[in-house]
Amino acid sequence: MVEKSTMDMSIRVEHKESSTEARALASLKAEAKALDFWYGENQALKSINMRIDEFRVTALIGPSGCGKSTYLRCFNRMHDLQDNTRYGGAILFQPDGVNILDRSVDPIEVRMRIGMVFQKPNPFPKSIFENVAYGLRVRGQNNRTEIADRVEQALREASIWDEVRERLDDMAFNLSGGQQQRLCIARALATEPELLLFDEPTSALDPNATANIEDLIHRLKEKVTILIVTHNMQQAARVSDYTAFMYLGELVEFGATRGVFTNPAKKQTEDYITGRYG
Amino acid sequence: MTLTKNDLRRHLSGQFNADLDAIIDRVQTMGQLVLDQLRDALGALERNDGELAVQVVARDTEVNRLELGLDEACRDMLVQRQPAAGDLRLVFAVIKVVMDIERMGDLAKRVAKAALKSAGTPQQRFGGAIASLGASVLSLSDKALAAFVAFDGVAAAAIKQEDRAIDEQCKEITAELQLFIAAQPGSTGGALQLIWAARSLERFGDHAKNVAEHIFYAVYGKEIRHMSDEERAQWLTVD
Amino acid sequence: MHDTQAIRQLVLRGRRRDAIFAIIGLICMMIGILTLAFLLAGLIQDGAHRLNWSFFQNFPSRRAEQAGILSAMVGSSLVMLITAATAIPFGIGAGIYLEEYARRSWVTNLIEVNVTNLAGVPSIIYGLLALSLFVYALDFGQSILSAGLTLALMILPVIIVSTREAIRAIPVSIREAAYGVGATRWQLVRDHILPYSAGGILTGVIIGLARAIGETAPIITIGALTFIAFLPASPITAEFPFISFEWLESPFTVMPIQMFNWLSRPQAAFQENAAAAGLVLVVMTLVMNGTAIWLRIRFRKRIKW
Asked: Which residue of A146, B211, C47, C258 pairs with C72 in a disulfide if CB–CB is 3.0 to 4.6 A?
């Protein structure tokens, strides 16, 4: 039995940002300021303040219903497609500093700068080539060579060029699940977005396909800023530079991934990460 | 977030809770065994009890067996649970602590061997000092093990100071023994054994200090290993 | 340990019930098929011998052997032309608007309920509506134009509903993907919604037309004549502007009415004519429905949700 020390010592251990230096080097790509969101009367997001650093991967984790997907979809104004939704606060997008949630900002414009990859791969029922080219056509790009070049480049960036180069006119549905998801990533990349949103991109895929896409994300972040929602905590730990833990619509903790996963500051975060919590 | 003993029992998975509890229990068992080994070895040295010394040497295989078992349990924990945050720090600490305790077991065995081989004058003159050093080491190691089992970071932090005192003690005894050897070359064999014994005791204390530093990391998420005193003072405040 | 005997008994009993149910289902199906078969057999027996080239080329006549369905077929075709030209664009357009553009409100819900109800309104009501609206109020007269518009009104709900169903079958994920890439709503409709729902829409159109081709009551109501021994003026003329719209105003008759006319004559020969005409109508309907089914299958193969 240890005898209590006569000195009443208390330990204060500081949680310094071990990546403070790294953060100083990264510039800001987007910033949520007091972001609120309502589905009708129900407030799904409560006053979220969060930095998204450029060319970094930021992961959003949290239990079901915590609002991480809702938060993600604010970035490309996806909620505009539904009735009875309301944004509050702002999301400032750099380098222009424009608030992309403002009513005067056209959601189509926002979506041309911010791309999205969804949970279940959703290629169009068209050929592989047409899938990737669609984003370009929508912008009025008509030059055949230009389109072909960009499509090839996007397919290369998505690490799927070698697998499909011989069958670009095949229907996209004939690809496997993992390939379809990479095709969707290529589709999003073709338009050279500044920010790429991933909504649980591998939850419908097998471990092999998942690993492919995680490696891909690692390479992509050199060119695009990435915001990823995942319910797989090990994936968040593997893939991200920063991790945000959300609960019931609020941002509970945000920090460098290593710190959050080895020594979180908030008890709620710790409980969630260690499975003392659903 | 600070890790507490209670946290071990709060996982949604009861099996996880049970597995962690079992690991801590086994560490305690192994630690106790090693402390008993040292106590017996010191006793054997003091009373010149050859039989006891032989027992200590033989029982070291038990210590090694416990080490292998605990390593396997930790591997299982890593592959099954992919622990994070406090749990990760704990498993990491246990893996390190097991290594330290196994070395402590080896060192106790060394002391017992010294008991077998030493006799005569050096024993009479220096036995007391060795016994005193041994008592300090045992006291420190008791505290370290207790701090580990209780997840007491505060107690763990205090142990480094005590270890310094032990280092000093060992230096003194070693210096005197060296003088003795120079003066009486005939008893070199016995004196050397005592030097080995003293050094083993000092290293035993070092490993116990390591155990304390590991539990500090597990509890607070902060490494205090290899920190200078000034750095340490920065991290700890005294009320 | 479970009693294997008891389990075996249970399984046997279940199997017996399965067999009985299968037989009942088979009987029900056969009743339907056999009835149709008898009907067709009757028609063939009565009228098949009348189906020669002259039957299709002759006008109706007081002499049964010389009577033909030329004017009726041409009349039916022209009316179908008007019906299709009107119902298709309006029906598809309305369907797209209601599904894609209109915001959900009590108004759209009301419209949805009423459109579905309209599909079940008795066709003669449409005839009455057409009479007062097209024939008199708009003064289109008792013409092919009126008939075409009437039938168009009648099958409009069918086309609207099938358009909406076809559009609804497109998963939300496709829309999200299109919007996600920066498409506008019109681009979404043009590049995705229309192409993917084309199969379903086409099916609905063909089914609607197949129904319209056999409708008698509304056409009679607005005044199709039963004895037409001439053809409407040709749409294509020899002189400028090479297209004439005279045929829209011409008196006319359609297949079902011609059949009805022949049926009401006592002579057996005319009954045979009616049977022959009925055969033609049945075959046309079967061909149209068959095309609709084939199209549906083909489109389903290409697009799997």
From this structure: C258
Inter-chain touch B157–A11, beta carbons under 8 Å:
yes
The reply to whether B42 touches chain A by the CB within 8 Å rule is no
* Residue B54 predicted with pLDDT over 90: yes
Superfamily of domain C53-302: MetI-like (1.10.3720.10)
* Total domains in the fold of chain B: 1
| pLDDT, average across residues B216-221 | 92
Touching status, chains C and B (3+ beta-carbon pairs under 8 Å) = no
Per-residue pLDDT at B238 exceeds 80: no
Question: Got the DSSP string for A109-133?
Answer: HHHHHEEEE-SS----SSBHHHHHH
Range of the domain at A224: 25-122+194-273
Indicate the length of chain C as a whole number.
305
Residue spans of the domains in chain C: they are 4-50, 53-302
- Domain membership of residue A18 (yes or no) is no
Interface test with B, best of A233, A234, A253, A263 (most B CBs within 10 A): A263
Output the six-digit token pair for C195.
């192409």
B1 within some domain? no
pLDDT value for C241:
66
> Do A1 and B146 lie within an 8 Å CB cutoff?
yes
Contact B233/A at CB under 8 A: no
What ipTM describes this predicted complex? Answer: 0.88
In a domain, B178, yes or no: yes
Residue range B122-173, pLDDT digits in tens: 777 788 889 999 999 999 999 999 999 999 988 888 888 788 889 999 999 9
Query: Contact partners of B by the rule of 3+ C-beta pairs under 8 A?
Result: A
CB proximity list for C211: less than 8 A, separation 6 or greater: C154, C155, C158
- Is B45 among the domain residues? yes
Determine which of B4, B154, B239 to mutate to test the interface with A (most A C-beta atoms within 10 Å).
B154
**Could you tell me the CATH number of the domain that includes residue B11?**
1.20.58.220
Facing residue for A275 by CB, picked from B16, B155, B238: B16
CA distances from A5 to B138, B149, B159, B164 (A): 17, 16, 11, 17
Helix (H) / strand (E) element for B148: namely: helix B121-150
User: Total domain count for chain A?
Assistant: 1
Cα separation, A95 vs A27, whole angstroms: 10
Interface check for A2 against chain B (CB to CB < 8 A): the answer is yes
- For B158, the domain range is 7-234
Q: Is the residue at B206 inside a domain? A: yes
Q: Give the pLDDT confidence of C120-175 residue by residue, as tens digits.
A: 888 888 888 888 888 888 887 778 888 889 999 999 999 999 999 999 999 999 99
How does residue A8 score in pLDDT terms, banded at 50, 70 and 90?
very low
Q: Is the pLDDT of residue A87 over 80?
A: yes
Q: Is residue A225 part of a domain?
A: yes
- CATH number of the structural domain spanning residue A231: 3.40.50.300
Which residues of chain A neighbour C303 with C-beta distances below 8 Å? 125
